[in-house]
């Protein structure tokens, strides 16, 4: 059984992950409205991935004898000045999520909750991957600038991403 502080912190992260899913859905609609279907498809995979993250923590809380408490989810933005501005916001968001995961890890360590620490290790690695992937897209968009042919090539590349449920 987890202590109250750990359970509260994990519940806040469930909310943050579901907000992330909604945050990416706002971006999915932005890219659909631009007919950049590869970018939209990439965002839809991200929507599913964040939902998976939220459910992974939700299930863990119950597995440890707690109860997941569902909070309100804020309305996301749906307009940006450019694909680059949008992806810069993604990168800033993922850095914020990394901070949240690190804070959760601090609570687990402070409580000597080794089970939760082991559980959170997966999220620590996931955030390294998230930041690296998004950082690469931001770099490419900066190089692309106003070149629409290059933008369509990146759109085709991003269309290849398919979300598959991780095995563990
Ligand atoms: Fe759930 Fe994008 O981190």
TrEMBL record:
Keywords: Cytoplasm, Iron, Iron storage, Metal-binding, Oxidoreductase
PANTHER family in alphabetical order: BACTERIAL NON-HEME FERRITIN, FERRITIN
GO biological process assignments: intracellular iron ion homeostasis; iron ion transport
Cellular location(s): Cytoplasm
InterPro entries: Ferritin (IPR001519), Ferritin-like (IPR012347), Ferritin-like_diiron (IPR009040), Ferritin-like_SF (IPR009078), Ferritin_DPS_dom (IPR008331), Ferritin_prok (IPR041719)
Enzyme class: oxidoreductase
Catalytic activity: 4 Fe(2+) + O2 + 6 H2O = 4 iron(III) oxide-hydroxide + 12 H(+)
Protein name, as recorded: Ferritin
Ferritin-like diiron domain: residues covered: 1-145
Gene Ontology molecular-function annotations: ferric iron binding; ferrous iron binding; ferroxidase activity; identical protein binding
Taxonomic lineage: Bacteria, Pseudomonadati, Thermodesulfobacteriota, Desulfobulbia, Desulfobulbales
Stated role: Iron-storage protein.
Keyword Metal-binding: yes
Primary location recorded for the protein, binned into one broad class: cytoplasm
EC number(s) per entry: 1.16.3.2
Binding residue positions for Fe cation: 17, 50, 53, 94, 127
